[in-house]
Amino acid sequence: MIREEFRLKNQLCFRLYTASRLLTQVYHPLLSEHGLTYPQYLVLLVLWEKDAQPVNDIAKHLFLETNTVTPLLQRMEKEGVITRTKGEKDARQMIVSLTRKGRDLQKRLSEVPFAVGSAVLCDSITPESFPALFNMLDDIIAKLGNSKEQESRSQ
Amino acid sequence: MIREEFRLKNQLCFRLYTASRLLTQVYHPLLSEHGLTYPQYLVLLVLWEKDAQPVNDIAKHLFLETNTVTPLLQRMEKEGVITRTKGEKDARQMIVSLTRKGRDLQKRLSEVPFAVGSAVLCDSITPESFPALFNMLDDIIAKLGNSKEQESRSQ
DNA sequence: TGTATTTATATCGTTCACGATGCAAATATA
DNA sequence: TATATTTGCATCGTGAACGATATAAATACA
Asked: B interface mutation test: which of A7, A9, A17 has the most B CBs within 10 A?
């Protein structure tokens, strides 16, 4: 006698986890061609919007901890797509900046968003249905992301 | 000049990835108390629905590869929540079965689905809005999961 | 000013994900 | 029936995630 609330069919998290993994797999061949992983691509998205950010700002944009981002940035530095320089005002900070190679990747990856977009489109997933999905996911992220901040603030 | 399609705000995958990670983090304290990780919990969900399944069936339910599931099952066996026995009809198969401890965990974790559910509920995420979200995520999973099967079939 | 606290980042250990590869059992085919 | 192919699982290497902890710089405050 399986309880309904334990059925895989009724799990929100499992759906998010699976959809996320499968969609990330769509990125893989497109990115590995340029020596990038998906999280590294996310770092580039952040830096293309605003160059020269400290580690902490990048981590906050991605809802990640610095202990995840730091090694990732170290690998990206080794690959020559970013540089990490000590902050001038604050010597604790590491300012992450795009290299020429990192900037140029935006042009070389220009087809990626469209390729991924077309991979998910189907009868029920259309450009028109995106806003509704985006809103729900944003609400989940806001709820869980904020409650996390509350936690750390109350300690 | 950032292109719109590269903005973090416009990325479906980033939302799925973030929502998945944040929601998985809600599970963490509830599961680690019982020595479980989230992927291990998913294996239990599968086995609670149907006990004694080969590795491959478990992997397929979770949209994972056996090279991810095998080490995970080995850890669960070491923890004493499952057993792995060679298949009788097919000696290549490893049949994964719940131990007494694994079965009992269902009762001990009975509050988990409700605790997680209440963690996401807010003004816009309600029991009424779940079906719409579930349907869209299921469509994404079906589209990407199926196209993966097509691939392997055509090789 | 001297000490305590906070902040920014880094290091470490464990557990996934997953591509690539290996191996043995089962099945297909010559 | 002998050989080729497929199937099911395991091993290996790399790169995340993330809790725990460390370290140095900045800030607060006594």
From this structure: A17
Contact between A25 and B144 using a beta-carbon 8 Å cutoff: yes
Structural domain for B150, as ranges? 125-155
How near does any CA of chain A get to the CA of B87, in Å?
25
- Domain presence at residue B53: no
Kindly determine whether residue A136 and residue B134, on different chains, have CB atoms separated by under 8 Å. no
The tens digit of pLDDT for each residue in B41-79 reads 999 999 999 999 999 999 999 999 999 999 999 999 999
Which positions on chain C have an atom < 7 Å from some protein CB? Answer: 7-13, 15-21, 24-27
Q: Would you put residue A85 in left (φ > 0), alpha (ψ -120 to 50) or beta?
A: beta
pTM above 0.90, yes or no: yes
Residue A21, pLDDT above cutoff 80: yes
Counted domains in chain A: 1
Q: Does B63 map to a domain?
A: no
Classify residue B154: in a domain, yes or no.
Answer: yes
pLDDT band at A128 (very low <50, low <70, confident <90, very high): very high
State both tokens at A151: 């936690």
DSSP bridge partners of A41: none
CB B105 within 8 A of CB B44: yes
Nearest-by-CA chain A residue for B25: A144
